[in-house]
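Listing S7. Sequence submitted for prediction.
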Amino acid sequence: MSATDTISSPRSYHVTSAASAGLITLLIGVVCLVLEPIAPWLVKWPAAWSLPLAAWIGEGLGAFLNFIKPTMRVLSWLLEFPMGWANWVLNATPWPLLIALVTALGWLLGGLRMAALGALGLGFVLGTGYWSEGMNTLALVFVSVPLALLLGTGIGLLAYEVPRVKNAVQAVLDIMQTVPTFAYLTPLLLLFGFGPVVGLIASAIYAAPPMARNVLLGLERVDAEIKEAAVMSGGTRTQQLFLVELPAAGTQVMIGVNQCLMAALSMVIIAAVIGGFNDIGWEVLLTMRKAQFGQSVMAGLVIVVFAIVIDRYSGTLALARKSYDKRIAYGLIAVGVVASVVTWGQVSNTAGFAIFDGAAQVVDDAVGAFTASNGASLDQVKNGAMFYVLLPLRIGLDEAILPFTWGFQWTAAYSGIFFAATAAICVAVALSGRVALAAVLGCLAILLETGVSQLPWPFVLVGVGAIGYVSGGWKLTRLVMILLACVLISGLWERALLSLYLSGAAVLTCAVFGGLLGLWAAVSTTAWRIIRPICDMLQTIPLFVFLIPVLMFFQIGEFSAFLAIIAYAIVPMIRYTRAGIATTPPDLMEAAEATGATYWQTMWEVRVPYAAPTILLGLNQTILYAFSMLVIAALIGTTGLGQSIYIALGQADVGLGVAAGAAMAILALIADRLVQGFAEERRKALGL
């Protein structure tokens, strides 16, 4: 080959759109770093350029909330009645009768196994001594769920019947599901004051979107033949909708009921932070603050039991069920009535059945003994992760590498060597024809040297825009850059980067370990038998409870928050990875094997690429889960937007709470749209 042929080789000089976007981003980053000494505003957004959006929101929203406050206080007063009735009924009902009723319901829904689950679950609640607190929590759930079901069903029907508002409704639902849970509480606190009503209303608002989505999805999936038959029957539109189409969408609607119940329970627990109500959420928070980890574990397990029982019971409503003998249910109820009558004078003293108090003390003693004997090892793990992974990712190699942590000082000379070596590698990679990869490596070098929290703002804006262009074209680029610019001018940019750093580190960890666990579960049925029940348990645990085990061993701090986020967000990555790989069409694998491919060649070159859209959806859910947990983790020591929301909640600062919540929702929404764009592009490439 001649020199002319080499120079004209298309591989050496052809630059794809992805490579162009990457090179532009890299160029912006280099310019910002070079000009930082003479133009520091290129790196750190000047405070004078920020708009007082939090103050404006506080003034505008505060005026509106004060205007409607009298009406809302009347609504609050009205809601106290059903909540008080539910509270009285659950606490006044003798525990033998209530356990019998739940057991009988379990029998009717799922036979012996479901009945045993209900009986053992409520029996455990009784044995913890938290029966009264548990009933107070359930009272809030039982009142908030009907409100959420009505609200969600109404929204779903509106979006289905009026196509013009469907996109707007879906956008609102997206926002409602990406806004952090604590952000709901700040304006409600101003309207309704402290107390359980705040938890009730916040729970209803938070639990409505899953119901609305499932109602809309179920109605859209009703067969056209069924709709035509309803029209031909001559019924009115209302009759067609409620007598034909909604029943036909019953399975999907019941899935919505299940998700609504779980969301309501999760939000009721979170609302305990400001409710000051004698419920389980308050007990968890109180015992965690006192470092009474044994009692905290017991209270947390009560929440887990409620979540599992409610999830399993409501989940059966969406499945085809066997018919079980009702006489057994009546017999169970009769036994409960008789037991209540026989023990009438003793059933009210549920504290006397707290048989697990000793277990709580054992947990405290065991944790104390374990941390005392292994404290040095635990500190070594925590400090190692902080000094060698999290801190460099947060503030960069130039500030994180110190004699105290790494044993030497990072200097400007080291930065020069680091960037020179990176440039050489990037040039070599680019000359091999992989220009996009070279640009990515250069951008990663900038990120490592400066840290996520100190990245130049033009570099971040252009970089996110470049990813948007590769993912979804110019339309997505404009959307993500405008949304990110709103965060930039709000004065919350530095806090947003701190949130992005911690959630990004957790998501990256979940992607690696969750992906590997999902791969293992896909190729080994034994592994899936072990992993599946753990995933089921993690998905039913409310967010609050994830804080307990990490606090027990690592105390308050960023590393504990990091672990809690991973524990909550890793499940979707495992499930979607496993599902995507396990459902690869057999004919594709047979074709690969026929060409002589080995098992692992078939895995990496056929099964994983085919599963990519599903894996990306799992990554999308993991990102959203991480942002959701980020605010809860603010209770144990995180910084960033989550901490701002929590501070705003404590100070009843509506402006800061809404602004910080909106900023976090924007970050989650951007991540969601980017990952969805890549997943859609991959589906099109596979012809799906």
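Caption to Listing S7: primary sequence and predicted structure tokens for the chain studied. Residues 53-92 form the longest helix (40 residues). Residues 404-450 form one domain.
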